[in-house]
Every structure is written in C-alpha cells, then in structure tokens.
C-alpha cells in the first residue's frame, strides 16, 4: 500500500480510542516492539524496542539506541487517540411512538449538526462478568455497519433552519436505532443487540464505554485528488505519523518515544490523559532500568524535548477574514508550526527554531499558524504535558478545514511533509 492507502486504512480502523490503540499495538508488534506493563518491573536493553498499553486507550512506544548514554537527548512525540463523538449512556433505551432511540451524550466540542442524517455505527469496549471481581473481562466491539441515524427535522416543519438553529443536546441529537413494537417497548433492545454482537448473555454485561462514530470511509477529492475528506483526521493523522516515525527511524545514541494520550478533547485531566503523571513516570522508569540513579534520572529527564502533534487550522477559502492577517496556512502548503503567546500552544522561539532547522536541512515544507488576535483558538495537550515535564515543547500538525466536523478536509501532500519532519526528528544524529 502507498502512504495514502495506509492512512485510509488507519483512519477506518480507528473508530474509538480503544481501537486506535489496538491497531497501533498490532503495528508495533509487526515491527518487533515488546510489551511492558506499568504494574511490573522493567528489564530493558540498549538497542531494544518496547511499548506500554495504559488502560486500553493510551499507548506509549519507545526505542533505546544501542550506544545510549545518560546525557543523550530523549526525543518525544505526543498525539491523542480520541475525537469529538457521542458516547452511549447507561440504560440507553428510549422508545418514542414506536421508534427505539439510544440516549447519548456529546463528547468533546463537535460541530454536531454535521452528524445529522449520516450513517453511524458503534464501537468501544465492554466489561463482562468474570470469576475474579477485580478483573472483569474486557472485550472490544465494533459493529462495522451502519446502525444509527440522527434525522433532521424537515424544512416544512422548521422553516428557519437555514438561518441557523441551535440543537438541544438531549432532544435533537438522540439517534434512532430501530422500530420497536408496542409489546416490546419495555425490553432492553440496545443491550440485547450488544449481547448478540458479543455472543454473550445480556446479564453478563456490566458496563461499557461505547463511541458512536461516522460510518463513512475516507476519500480523495479535488480536480487532481489533491484533498482528503474523512472522519477523524483530528487527530489520527498525527497518531499515524508518529507510529511511522517511531517504527522506521533509529538513533544509535538517545531514546525515541511516542505517546498517544486519551481525553485530549475533554481537557486531558484523567489517568489516561496528558495531565497525568504517565509520561514522566515512563521516562523515569526507562532511564532507571538503564542504570540511572535518582540524581541521574532528574538530569536525564531534562535532556528531553517534546513535539505535541495535533492538527491546525487552514485558511478557509470562504472565510479568509477568520485567519490571522499575516500567517495564513493553506492545504498542501506543508504542516504547521503553531504558536500562541497565551501558551495554549506550547512553543518558544528556540524550540521552534530547532524544528525549522530540521525542516530546512531536509527540504521539508512547513507553515506557521497563529490565531487572529480577536479570536480565541483551541488548545492542545502540549502545554499540559510540558507543565508536568518542563522541557522545550513545540506544537505542530497538519492544517485542516472543518476541524471537529463529522468529516474534515486536509491536503493530500501534507501527510508527507509531517511524516518527513517526524522521521527526521527521530532519526537525525
């Protein structure tokens, strides 16, 4: 497969944070990475490749150079596995005039009206009864077929819709799953469907974390196929590129690490998020396992540098006034270096200059993104992670249109520029 085909396969597989991690682990195993657990002692070697799966939805992978010394740089890339979506609530069955609906809540800051009238499916993880109450069985599930639709109200009943209508999250965004006969309205029709998919009894299902996702495939578009339209470009493009970098590049000296956090879209403050101690703990355990004492651990950590890899805003051709007046990145112009004096993007001129020199030394296209001074932009995990690991940090990523829509849009060439940058980041001596 070429790069675009590989990216499309990854985007299609990453239908929940669990599935992003599962697909990533498979790729790491194919490339010789060995598993470690935070619950067990580590035995690692120079020249080794390892990964840590954390609570199913967060993942870290690292390589140790065969000639690694304690004063060598640790190069880190971070991205996130989650995306705006709907999460299914407990006891989700709602029956209204014969329609079986599923009670959901909004996860993250999606453009929710773009989800209406689209085929939707369900994926995630399910906890099942077990003989050991402290170790319930965990099963991943992906229905892999359209199941749900959130129908729009017809224009004849909503004449003002094209002037802009606010959607009520509890009323207007409840997807339809089935027709439910009157004599079956008290049955747990969703739980029954889930049990059938898992081939278990309904009473064996204890709890679940299930994502409603857009059941549509990525496509090339544009006169010369210069664009990609797909769900979940934010932020599976970054996960894909970091995976390629960590598996394909190697340094004789130094440690390369890629970490993929969950819960970025809701603030990162969780045991799986960038606001946890996970990254610092992993780095400490790596250098300790390589023979560092307590003082050397602290010194080694501060030899690190972090790239926070997440998508950026491209100039919108119909709304160019929404972009900064002098920094106007466009699709297919190269990946973006993201800067903000508020530190919502964690950058400083020295760290940015390092990335710029990497790009210029390797002929890699890049652009700069800064918010308009009168528009509050988004944020990333970079500022959060670097507050806990205070090392030079740069925010960067592929420019996209329609960020947080059900389908987003990017330039076909930009995945190449970001991949080249990350590979150079991990590979340059």
TrEMBL record:
<keyword id="KW-0645">Protease</keyword>
<dbReference type="Pfam" id="PF02127">
    <property type="entry name" value="Peptidase_M18"/>
</dbReference>
<dbReference type="GO" id="GO:0005737">
    <property type="term" value="C:cytoplasm"/>
</dbReference>
<dbReference type="GO" id="GO:0008237">
    <property type="term" value="F:metallopeptidase activity"/>
</dbReference>
<dbReference type="InterPro" id="IPR001948">
    <property type="entry name" value="Peptidase_M18"/>
</dbReference>
<dbReference type="GO" id="GO:0008270">
    <property type="term" value="F:zinc ion binding"/>
</dbReference>
<dbReference type="InterPro" id="IPR023358">
    <property type="entry name" value="Peptidase_M18_dom2"/>
</dbReference>
<keyword id="KW-0482">Metalloprotease</keyword>
<keyword id="KW-0862">Zinc</keyword>
<keyword id="KW-0378">Hydrolase</keyword>
<keyword id="KW-0031">Aminopeptidase</keyword>
<dbReference type="GO" id="GO:0004177">
    <property type="term" value="F:aminopeptidase activity"/>
</dbReference>
<protein>
    <recommendedName>
        <fullName>M18 family aminopeptidase</fullName>
        <ecNumber>3.4.11.-</ecNumber>
    </recommendedName>
</protein>
<comment type="similarity">
    <text>Belongs to the peptidase M18 family.</text>
</comment>
<keyword id="KW-0479">Metal-binding</keyword>
<dbReference type="GO" id="GO:0006508">
    <property type="term" value="P:proteolysis"/>
</dbReference>
């Amino acid at each position: 497969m070429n790069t675009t085909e590989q990216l499309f396969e990854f985007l299609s597989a990453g239908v929940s944070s669990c599935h992003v991690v599962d697909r990533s682990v498979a790729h790491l195993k194919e490339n010789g990475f060995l598993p470690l657990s935070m619950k067990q002692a580590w035995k690692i070697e120079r020249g080794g490749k390892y990964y840590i799966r954390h609570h199913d939805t967060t993942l870290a992978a690292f390589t140790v150079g065969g000639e690694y010394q304690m004063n060598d740089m640790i190069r880190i890339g971070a991205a996130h596995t989650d995306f705006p979506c709907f999460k299914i609530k407990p006891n989700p069955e709602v029956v209204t005039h014969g329609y079986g609906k599923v009670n959901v809540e909004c996860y993250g800051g999606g453009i929710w009206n773009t989800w209406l009238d689209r085929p939707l499916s369900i994926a995630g993880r399910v906890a099942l009864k077990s003989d050991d109450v402290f170790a319930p069985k965990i099963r991943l599930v992906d229905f892999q077929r359209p199941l749900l639709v959130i129908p729009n109200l017809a224009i004849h009943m909503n004449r003002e819709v094209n002037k802009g209508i606010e959607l009520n999250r509890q009323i207007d965004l409840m997807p339809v799953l089935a027709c439910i006969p009157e004599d079956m309205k008290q049955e747990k029709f969703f739980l029954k469907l889930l049990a059938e998919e898992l081939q278990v009894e309904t009473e064996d299902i204890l709890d679940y974390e299930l994502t409603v996702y857009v059941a549509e495939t990525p496509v090339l578009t544009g006169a010369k196929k210069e664009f990609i339209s797909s769900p979940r470009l934010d932020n599976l493009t970054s996960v894909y590129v970091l995976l390629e970098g960590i598996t394909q590049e190697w340094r004789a000296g130094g440690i390369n690490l890629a970490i993929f956090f969950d819960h970025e879209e809701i603030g990162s403050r969780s045991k799986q998020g960038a606001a946890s101690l996970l990254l610092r703990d992993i780095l400490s355990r790596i250098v300790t396992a390589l023979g560092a004492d307590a003082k050397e651990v602290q010194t080694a950590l501060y030899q690190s540098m972090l790239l926070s890899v997440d998508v950026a805003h491209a100039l919108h051709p119909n709304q160019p006034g929404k972009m900064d007046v002098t920094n106007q990145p466009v699709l297919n112009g190269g990946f973006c270096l993201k800067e903000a004096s508020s530190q919502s993007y964690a950058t400083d001129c020295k760290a940015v200059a390092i990335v710029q020199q990497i790009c210029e030394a390797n002929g890699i296209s890049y652009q700069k993104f800064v918010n308009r001074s009168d528009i509050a932009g988004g944020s990333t995990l970079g500022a959060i992670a670097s507050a806990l690991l205070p090392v030079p940090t740069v925010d960067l990523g592929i420019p996209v249109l329609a960020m947080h829509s059900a389908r987003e849009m990017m330039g076909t060439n930009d995945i190449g520029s970001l991949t080249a940058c990350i590979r150079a980041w991990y590979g340059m001596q």
